[in-house]
């Protein structure tokens, strides 16, 4: 899996990241920062997108 490849994430994780990213943007964060925070949060909660 290459850096930035989101294919191993579940649909639920992708929805969570999108929701977090939207919230971060609303707080005034840049697009890049909001995306980074969103995926870092999903990784912390769910273990780096790995499916069992």
TrEMBL record:
Locations of Basic and acidic residues compositional bias? 1-35
Chain positions covered by the region annotation Disordered: 1-52
Protein's name in the database? Transcriptional regulator
> Per the UniProt entry, what species is this protein from, by scientific name?
Rhodanobacter caeni
């Amino acid at each position: 899996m290459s850096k930035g490849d989101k294919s191993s994430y579940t649909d639920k994780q992708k929805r969570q990241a999108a929701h977090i990213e939207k919230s971060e943007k609303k707080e005034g964060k840049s697009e890049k920062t909001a995306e980074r925070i969103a995926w870092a949060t999903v990784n912390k909660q769910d273990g780096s997108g790995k499916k069992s």
